[in-house]
C-alpha cells in the first residue's frame, strides 16, 4: 500500500498540467484529422484527368501512414491523460498500477500520465525486451501460425 499521499495542492497542480497536455493532444489530433480530411476531399474527384507518378503516390501513402501513426499515438496519450485525470478525482493519482507504491515525483514531472513507478516500468521493459529480442521465434510462431492444418489422407 502507498505510504505517502499527494496533497490537494499537488493534485491540483498535476490536474492543471494534465489538462494542458490534454488540450495540446486534442489540438494535434484535430490538426491531423483536418489535414487528412482535406487530402481525401482533394483526391476524391475524377482521377482520370491527372497524371500521378508512382513515386509521388508512394510518398503520399508513406506520409499518410506516418500521420495515422502520429494520430494513434496522440489518441493513446489522450486516453492515458483522461485516466490520470480520473485518478486525480478519485485521489488515486500517482500510484503505480503494478506494485501500489507512489510513483516518484520526478517521474510524474516528466510523464504526468505515468502508470508505473520507475522500478516496475523497468521490469516491464525488460520483459518486453526478452520476449522481443531474446525469443523472436516465439513471436514469429504466433504471428505466422497457420489458422488450421488440413490432415493429409
Give a brief rundown of this model.
This protein is mainly alpha-helical and 153 residues long.
Number of helices: 5
Low-pLDDT regions: 148-153
In whole angstroms, the N-to-C terminal distance is 60 Å
Dominant shape: flat
Helix content: 55-70%
How is the main sheet built? none
**Mean pLDDT over the residues:** 81
Instruction: Please provide the count of β strands.
Output: 0
Walk me through the topology.
Layout: H1 8-42, H2 54-90, H3 105-110, H4 118-134, H5 136-143
Helix pairs in contact: 1-2
Give a verbal description of the structure.
With 153 residues, this protein is an all-alpha fold. The protein contains five helices and no strands. Helix 1 (8-42) runs antiparallel to helix 2. The radius of gyration is 23 Å and the shape is flat.
Descriptive keywords:
153 residues, mainly alpha, disordered C terminus
